[in-house]
Amino acid sequence: MRRFSLASLLSEAVGGHQGWGRQWRAPEPKPSYDVVIVGGGGHGLATAYYLATVHGITNVAVVEKGWIGGGNTGRNTTIIRSNYLYDESAHLYEHALKLWEGLSQELNYNVMFSQRGVLMLAHNIHDIQSFKRHVYANRLNGIDNEWLSAEECKAFCPPLNISREARYPVLGGALQRRAGTARHDAVAWGYARGADARGVDILQNCEVTGVRRDAGGAAIGVETTRGFIGAKRVGVVAAGNTSRVMDMAGVRMPLESYPLQALVSEPVKPVFPCVVMSNAVHAYISQSDKGELVIGAGTDQYTSYSQQGGLHITNHTLDAICEIFPQFTRMRMLRSWGGIVDVTPDRSPIIGRTPVDNLFVNCGWGTGGFKATPGSGHVFAHTLATGEPHPINAPFTLDRFRTGRLIDEAAAAAVAH
Amino acid sequence: MLDRSLVARRDRPLGAAPTSNDRARVAPAPAGVRLSLRVRGAEGLSSLGLGLAINRMSAEGERFSARLGPDEWLLGAGEAELETLEGEIAAALGDRFRSVVDVSHRNVAVEIAGPDAASALNAGCPLDLSDAAFPAGSATRTLLGKAEIVLLRPTAEPLYRVECWRSFATYVHGFLVEAARTA
Amino acid sequence: MAQPHRLPQGGRVDRATPIRFSFDGRTIEGFAGDTVASALLANGVHLVGRSFKYHRPRGILTHGSDEPSALLQVDRGPGKIDPNNRATVVEARNGLTTSSQNRWPSLAFDVGAVNDLLSSVFVAGFYYKTFMWPRSFWDKVYEPVIRAAAGLGVAPQVADPDAYANRHAHCDVLIVGAGPAGLAAALAAAKSGKRVILADEQPEFGGSLLHDTTATIDGQSAEAWRIAAIEELDGYETVTLLPRTTAFGYYNHNHVALTERVTDHRETPAKGAPRERLWQVRAGEVVLATGSHERPLVFADNDRPGVMLAESVRVFINRYGVAPGRRIVFVTSGASAYAAAADAKAAGLEVVMVDLRPERDCGPEAADLRLKGVEVLTGQTVIETKGRKRVAGLVVAPCANGTVGDRRVIACDCVGMSGGWTPAVHLFSQSRGKLAYDEGRDAFLPGVSAQAERSVGAAAGLYDLATCLTSGYAAGAAAAGVAGGRAFAASQTPTGFTPVRDLPTDANPAKVRAFVDFQNDVTAKDLKLAMREGFESIEHVKRYTTTGMATDQGKTSNMNALGIVSKALGRPLPAIGTTTFRPPYTPVTFGALVGPARDALFDPIRTTPIHEWAAEHGAAFENVALWRRAWHFARPGEDMHAAVDRECRAVREGVGIFDASTLGKIEVVGPDAAEFMNRMYVNPWTKLGVGRCRYGLMLKEDGYILDDGVVARMAEDRFHVTTTTGGAPRVMNHMEDYLQTEWPDLDVFLTSTTEQWAVIAVQGPRARDVIAPLVSGIDLSNEAFPHMSVREGAICGAPCRLFRVSFTGDLGFEINVPADYGRAVWEAVFAAGEPYGITPYGTEAMHVLRAEKGYIIVGQETDGTVTPDDVGLAGMIAKAKKDFVGKRSLARPDVVAAGRKQLVGLATETAALVLDEGAQIVADPGEPIPMTMLGHVTSSYFSANCGRSIALALVADGRALMGRTLHVTTPAGFAAATVCDPVFFDSEGGRIHA
Amino acid sequence: MLLIDCPFCGTRPETEFRCGGEAHIARPTDPSALDDGAWAEHLFVRSNPRGLHAERWIHAHGCGRWFNAVRDTYTDRFVETYKAGEQPSHPIDDARA
C-alpha cells in the first residue's frame, strides 16, 4: 500500500499525480474464502479490515452488489456519538468512538473525524429528566457528556434560538464534546484500501442471490451474480437488505426496512459549529466541511426498499429546523436522498450468531449505524474469527427477542405524562 | 344553590369577530349540538341521514347529518335541540345496539366562505376540493395543516364548515386566517 | 455610457422602464425584463464570482437555472439577504443589492486565488491523503482552515420577515415546461375540458420560442403563435397557468412539488402576498416538457469569464438585447450553435465559427453561415483561452485523427461553446422511470415510465421544433384521455451533434486544466486521477472528485463527466452508470417547504377552557405533548419552589383546585364493553359496579406499561375511561386497533371525549365543603359517595359527571363538566372555596403530592421498559383472566428473572437535598469507572408536607434493599440515600376516605 | 406522499393514514399456549419483503377504519386494498414468486 502523506502528495504533484495506483484492487472472485462478508458498506469493510489486522484472517472476500459505500454509509448524516443510556449500548458506541479517534492515522486515510460536539436539546421537563439520566449514566461509564443551560447551549451554538417565546423553548441541553461527524465516503474507502492491502478481495457489482447450505444445514458459501463463492463462515452485513439475504438462508428476522431521508442545503461559509439534535421537534443538523447544512429527516411510516420517501417528511423536518433556527428559512435545499434502514423491535442492532451454523449477522442499526462503524466491524470481526461474540456484542443477540432482554434506548426516552 | 345563569352561556374558545377578506372570509360558527352516532347496519334507514353514502351529508337549517365512515355519523342541531335529537335517534334505532356520545363541547366550527375559500383550505387540506370531487353535500374527516378536522360543505355555495376539536380551534382559525391572506 | 453593451434594438426587455440595482457597490442600469445576468452583461460586467476551490475568476456561463458560476449574494431589504442566487435567474429590479461571493478582499483581487497556484497539490481527494499528522493538528489547524475555506455565500443571520404559502392542488394533467412542446401539450389537454396545470420556471411562457426569433409555426412567427397559444389557454377556466414556478420534485403516485416565486421580482409586493408558494400537485397524468441543457466543451481554461454556452449567447442577444461580446467565437460540435452565430451576426456582432467536426460531418448550416459572411473553421480542436479575468482570445488548431495541427489564436471577447445537448430527465428519473442510453443522441433518454407520465420535446431528445410541437400535442391529448393529434408546420431547427469529450490538445496533458464542473473546480484531470485510483463507478467518481455536487447539481457537467470516464475506461457509457436524480431539480428555499408552519402555526398549542383564567392568575405554563398546562401559580415575590410548597401545603391543609382537563377521555360503549376492557387492561372489569371507578393499567403486547388512568363505569354498557395527557391519542389508537382488527365481533364503540369535558380537580380535606353548595342531585356523603365512585348530577346548573377520586391521597373530587362551562364552573368553585383558602395548583404541585403518596406517573416512573411488577402494581393484575394484552410477555424468562429494577423510595441523608431526576444510583461510590449502576431516580422533589426531600427510584432488586444506604449522583459528587417505602405521606391511607 | 385507496372513502393522501405494519398476523387465541420462541415470532418477526407486501393501514384522519393493502415495497405501488377481515384477491406469495 502506497503510504499517503503530505510528502507523497507533494512528490506526486510534481508529476501530475500520474503515480497514484488503485486504492483497492478489482480482483476476480476466488472459489472460496475463509470468510465471505456480504455487504460492502462501512460495517462490512471494517469487519474485513479487522479480520485481517486483528485476527490475521486475510483470505476474506467482501461481496457488494453495487459499489462500496453506496448504501447507508454514503447516505447518512455522519453523526458520531456514544452518549447512550444503557451499559450495553454505551459500551458498544464508546468502543467505536475510541476507534474513531485514531482512525485516520490507523487507516492512513483522512476520514475527517471532526469532534465538534453533539448537542441534544431539551425542550420540556421530561427531556431534562431524560438527558440528565443520560449524562449521569454516561459519566459513570466513562463517557463524556455534560448538562448545559440554555444560555450555555447558545454560547456553544450561536445560531440557536433560545427565546422563551418559542413554541418549544430550549430549556438546556446535553453536550458530548468528543462526538461529532466524519466524512462518510472516506470511511468506506479507507477501510477498503486497508483491507485490500492486507489481501482482502473486494468484489463489487457482485450480488448475492443465494446462501448455500450443506446437508447439515450449515452455510458453506454464497451464490452470486459472479458465481458461487465458498466460505467457511459467512457474515451478513447488508443494512437495508438484511431480511432479503437472510431469507435466502431460510432465516426470518425481526426486522423491518424503512426509508430514511436526509438533505443538504447549498454550501455557505461556516455558520454552524457543532451538531444539534432535537428529539422533541424531530430535527438534527450540522454543517459539512464543504459548507452544506446537513439535515436528517425521519423515516417514512411504511416499509420500503425504494430509497425514496415522501415530501411531507422533508417538510416536517424543515419546519422543526426553522423553528429552532428561524434565520435559515432563506437557505435552500440543494439535494435530498433516501436510504433504507433495518429496524429491530428495540431499535438496537443484532450482532452475532444465527440459527444457521457458520452464518453470522450484523444488522438492525436503524437510523444510527454510521457512528458505530469501527466498533461494529471490530466486534463482528471477533465474532467471525472466533465463532463467539466479543463481550461488547454479547448482549446484542437475536435471542433477546425471545427472552425479553431488550435494549430499548428509544423506549427509555419515550415521552408520556 | 347558585344561579343557573352562570352556565346559561357557553364559553366558546374563539372570539366572535369575523375575519374579513373579500375572497375568503373566515368566521367562527355559533355553538350547537353535536352527537357522535355509531351504529352498524343502519344504512337502510332513511331518517337522520342514516341512508347517506359515506362522506356525504344532508343539512337543513342548523340540523345536519354527516356520514363520516361506515358506522359513524356526526349529527348537528341547534343548541336547544339535544333532547329532541336524542329522541329522534331512539325512535329511529329502537333497541338496536349503538353508541351516542355528546360531543357538542368537543367540536368547534369555523366557516370559510368566498371565491378563494377552497384555495385557502388547500393551504393545509390535501383533498381535492373542486366541485366535481367535493360537491355540495360532501363531508369528511381530513387534515388542515397539523390538525385533524371535519370538513363539511353543506351547499353548492363556496362555503365550508371546518370542525375541529376545541383545543385546536385557535390553531385552525389562525391557519385559515393566514391561508386566506396568502391564498 | 449606460449599458454600453445593450444592442440598439431587439430583446424582450421593456426599454421604457429603466431599473437600477447594485453589484459589489456599483450601480447597474438595466431594463424591466432583464435578469441580473443580462443587466450585468449589458454593462460589460463579465467577472461576477470566484470558484469554490481555486477561487478562479468566473463569469456567466448560461442563461438559466443550470448556471454553475454566476452566484450572488442578494439583498432584497432588511432580513431578506440570502446567498448563492443565480444571476441568470434573479429578475433585475429596483432596490436589489447584489454582491459577489467567495472572495476577499475584493472580486478583482482575491487572496484565495493563491489556491489556484497550488492547484497541482489541491487535486481531487487530496485531503484524504494528508492533514493526518501530527494528530492534534487536525482539530486545531487543518480542519478549521479547511472549513473556513469552504462554502460560497454567507448564510442569513436574522429571522426571515417574508411569508411562505402552501397549496395542495389537483389536476388531470400537469405539464411541466411551457416551451413549444409544453404549450402544445397544454393546448391539446385543455381542449378536453379537463383540469390542466401548466408550470414553467421562467417569468414568461415560451421556452426557446422566447429567443428563437426567426422561427415560424404554422406560417406565423413563433412569437405570434406563442401569444395566441397563451391567450387560448388563458381562456379556459379549467387551465391554471403558473409562470415563475419550478417543478422540483416528482414523488410517489404522481405527487409533484413546485415552487412559485410570487414576490421576489416585485418592488412593491401586494400586502400579505407570500414570497413563494409551494404547490403540491397530485396529477392524474404528468407531461414532462422540461427541455434540455447545453453542454460546455472541455478544454484548457474553458472557465474564463466571457466563455459561455452558445445558446446562452443567443438568448442574451435575442431575448435581452445584450451583446455578450463584440467579437464572438462560437465553438461547437453540432448544428444548433449555427443559429446562435447567425443571430449574433444579424445583430451586427463580429462572429467566427469553429466547428470541431470535420467538414464532411457538418450539415448545410456551415455553408449557410459562410454565405452570411462568417468565417467557419471546421475540423478544429480548442487548445485554450487567452486572457485573465475576461477571455481575450481562443487558441484553436486543426485536428484530424488525434493529430493536432498548428495553433491559431482568434482574438475575441466572448466565446459561445456547444458540446451538444442533454435532455433534462431529472423529473423523469425522480419519478423512478428507467433511463435508456441513446447512442445516436449521446444522451440518457426517458425509457420505461414508472408513473402516469410522458416526456416530450427536448426532454425526450427531440430537438426539432415541429417534432417538439407534434410530440407535445400528442402527449397532451393522450394524457387528457382524448383522441387526436395534429401536425405542426414549423421552420427547420438545426439539430444534431457529434459527441466530444475532453478536446484533443497539443499541450502537456498533466498541465491542462479543462473544467468539467465549473463551480466545484473539477477538471478532466481530476476525473482521470480518480479512475487511476480505482474509482470507476460514476457514483464513486462523483463522490471522490465532487463533480456534479455543486449547487447546479451537475446540469452542465454530468454528461461530460460520464463521457470522459467512459472514454478513459474504454467502457460503453451505460456501463459507467448514470447518477440517480434526486429532488430538488433546482435548490428550493426551506421557507417554501415550511410554508405557513412557522411561529404560532408551527405546531398547534392546545389549551384548556381554564387556560385564560390561569394566565390571568399568574400561572407559569409547561409544555406537555401539544398541551400547555399550568405549571405553578407563583405569586409576586415567590419563586417556583415557594409557590409549589405553598400549593402543596394548601391541598393537605385546606383545599386546592387543579385543572385536569388535559387528561385523555374515551367513552367505551356497547354490550361487550366490559369484556373489551378485560382484554385491554390488566385489571378485571366484569364485576365493577355501575357508579364505581377503578384504577386501570394498560400494557403493550410486549408486557410493558403503556398507560394508566381511572376508569368509571357509567352504566352496564358504558365506561368513562381516562388516560394520561400525553398518552390519549396513543391509547385511543391502541384500543381501536385491537377492537377493529383482533376482535371485530365485540359490540363496542369508542369515542374520544377528551375535549368534551373540562375537568376540575378539587382536592384536600375541605373539598367536599367547597363543592357541596354547588352540586345538585348527588349525595356527597362519604357513605353515599365513597372514594372511587362516580355520580351524574349537576353543578352550578351544568350537567356533570362527578368523580370521587384522588391523585393526591387526600379527599378529592374531579368535576367533569361540558367544556364550554368549564371556566364558569371553575370560577364558581373558586369563589365558593375562597372562605376555605382554596388555592389553585399546577402540575408541579400535583407531581409532588402524588409522589408523597408513591403514585406513579407513566412516562416518569415508567419508560417503556417497565412492567407492572417493576412498579409494584402486580397486584392489579386479574389473576383469573386467561388473557389480556401484554399478559403473555410478562412470562418471558428475562421478564421474570431476578435483578429487575423495582420502584422504591429514596430518603437522602441530607433532608434538604433534592436529587436530580435521572440521577444514577450505585452501591459503592468508590468503584472505578465503568461503575455498576443499580438504577436511577425517577421523581424527586422537596416535600413541604414531609419537611424533607423525597424521591422515587427504580433500583435493581430494590424491594430487597429496604433500609440500605445507596449512593446517588449529584452535580457535586455522590450523595447517600436510604432505600425506603415509596409512600412518604399518610402511609395508612386514611385521608383519602375522609 | 402515497395516494391510498381507502375501501370506504376512495383515494386519499397518505398523511390521512397510519401504517400498521404487516397484515394477516392474527393474535393467537391463547397466547399462553405458545412457547417463548413462538410468542417472539408472533410479536417481532416480519417478512419484510422487497416486493409485494400485505400490510395494515388505518384511515386515521378519515373514516377511522383499519383495512389491508397489498403494496410493492420496491415500487411503492399499491396492487389493491381490501377491508379488514378479507383476504387479498391474489395470494401474496404466488404473486411474489
Automatic annotation (TrEMBL), chain A:
Keywords: Cytoplasm, FAD, Flavoprotein, FMN, Nucleotide-binding, Oxidoreductase. One of its GO terms (molecular function) is nucleotide binding. It holds the Pfam family DAO. The keyword Oxidoreductase applies. Gene3D superfamilies: D-Amino Acid Oxidase, subunit A, domain 2, FAD/NAD(P)-binding domain. Its EC number is 1.5.3.24. It is found in: Cytoplasm. NCBIfam families: soxB. This is Sarcosine oxidase subunit beta. It comes from Methylopila capsulata.
TrEMBL record, chain B:
GO terms for molecular function: sarcosine oxidase activity. Its EC number is 1.5.3.1. Keywords: Oxidoreductase. The keyword Oxidoreductase applies. Gene3D superfamilies: Heterotetrameric sarcosine oxidase, Probable tRNA modification gtpase trme, domain 1. InterPro entries: SoxG, TrmE/GcvT-like. Transmembrane segments: none annotated. It holds the Pfam family SoxG. It is an enzyme of class 1 (oxidoreductase). This is Sarcosine oxidase subunit gamma. It comes from Methylopila capsulata. The lineage of its organism: Bacteria, Pseudomonadati, Pseudomonadota, Alphaproteobacteria, Hyphomicrobiales.
TrEMBL record, chain C:
It holds the Pfam family Pyr_redox_2. One of its GO terms (molecular function) is sarcosine oxidase activity. Its EC number is 1.5.3.1. The keyword Oxidoreductase applies. Residues 512-593 form the SoxA A3 domain. Residues 901-986 form the Aminomethyltransferase C-terminal domain. The keyword GTP-binding does not apply. Keywords: Oxidoreductase. One of its GO terms (biological process) is tetrahydrofolate metabolic process. Residues 610-881 form the GCVT N-terminal domain. InterPro entries: 2Fe-2S-bd_N (IPR042204), BFD-like_2Fe2S-bd_dom_sf (IPR041854), FAD/NAD-bd_sf (IPR036188), FAD/NAD-binding_dom (IPR023753), GcvT/YgfZ/DmdA (IPR028896), GcvT/YgfZ_C (IPR029043), GcvT_C (IPR013977), GCVT_N (IPR006222). It comes from the Bacteria. Residues 172-437 form the FAD/NAD(P)-binding domain. It is an enzyme of class 1 (oxidoreductase). NCBIfam families: soxA. Belongs to the GcvT family. This is Sarcosine oxidase subunit alpha.
From TrEMBL, chain D:
InterPro entries: SoxD (IPR006279), SoxD_sf (IPR038561). Keywords: Oxidoreductase. The keyword DNA-binding does not apply. The keyword Oxidoreductase applies. GO terms for biological process: tetrahydrofolate metabolic process. Coiled coil: none annotated. It holds the Pfam family SoxD. One of its GO terms (molecular function) is sarcosine oxidase activity. Its EC number is 1.5.3.1. This is Sarcosine oxidase subunit delta. It comes from Methylopila capsulata.
